[in-house]
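Field log, afternoon session.

UNIT: design team B
ACTIVITY: writing a sequence onto a fixed backbone
BACKBONE:
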């Protein structure tokens, strides 16, 4: 269980997150959904222990997060691969730290299998500079999912990918989570409503200025139905409409607060 209680943080005097209260059950796939600038990535870094909240607390299994969290594996937006190491060695470095009892040959086999899983078979000896942006992101995802961690944090990991690879990796992450049997919790940042509906078993909607929790919704249909049936399902369509309504209400409130919106007169 991840427990966030009244979590707030500010940068240069500006409140970025305001009293976030959120419980993430073990085995959940929580999508953090919100527009750019609402503090989703900041919240993810707080969960990983890479930032410290100004007030409030975050605990994992009752233990307060007060530094880089070993229970978490993170996929950032910017790939975060070591450029002086080959793609395979980047994976093996993470695997060696997580699986110190395995031999180098075993680690290499694992690294190669996970690269194959994300469509990068044969890229083991290539350096990140030789890969496209989408390929580097797939390598970073392979590294993250190869580590046997309990919590996987993903910060808009598919943003740099073309539609085909994006769909393929959505399917992969969804399947890996389902196959974990509740042993892995995923927190996934996105601004794409349909992506959240497809992946998330729960969806947290953030508002901005400052970042705050607007809604928290269960999404059981995401594991009952395949992609081609999910978006024809009435419960999914109703949740989609509800999320968009929350977005509109938040946007109208911000515009009204700034005296930019006047009923019937536009902006």
């Amino acid at each position: 269980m991840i427990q966030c209680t009244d979590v707030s943080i500010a940068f240069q005097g500006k409140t970025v997150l305001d009293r976030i209260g959120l419980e993430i059950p073990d085995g959940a796939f929580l999508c953090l959904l919100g527009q750019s600038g609402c503090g989703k990535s900041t919240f993810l870094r707080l969960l990983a222990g890479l930032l410290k909240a100004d007030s409030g607390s975050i605990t994992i299994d009752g233990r307060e997060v007060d530094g880089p969290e070993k229970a978490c594996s993170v996929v950032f937006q910017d790939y975060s691969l070591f450029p002086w190491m080959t793609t395979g060695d980047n994976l093996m470095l993470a695997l060696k730290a997580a699986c110190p009892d395995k031999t180098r040959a075993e680690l290499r086999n694992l690294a190669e299998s996970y690269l194959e899983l994300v469509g990068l078979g044969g890229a083991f000896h290539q350096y990140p500079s030789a890969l496209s942006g989408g390929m580097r992101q797939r390598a970073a995802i392979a590294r993250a999912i190869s580590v046997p961690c309990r919590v996987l944090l993903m910060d808009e990991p598919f943003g740099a990918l073309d539609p085909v690879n994006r769909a393929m990796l959505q399917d992969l992450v969804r399947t890996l989570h389902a196959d974990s049997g509740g042993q892995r919790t995923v927190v996934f940042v996105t601004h794409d409503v349909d992506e959240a509906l497809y992946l998330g078993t729960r969806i947290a909607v953030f508002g901005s200025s400052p970042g705050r929790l607007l809604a928290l919704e269960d999404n059981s249909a995401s594991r009952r139905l395949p992609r081609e049936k999910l978006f024809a399902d009435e419960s999914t369509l109703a949740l989609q409409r509800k999320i968009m309504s929350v977005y509109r209400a938040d946007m109208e409130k911000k515009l009204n607060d700034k005296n930019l919106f006047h009923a019937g007169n536009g902006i």
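LOG NOTE: The chain has a mean pLDDT of 88.
NEXT ACTIVITY: expression trials, pending approval
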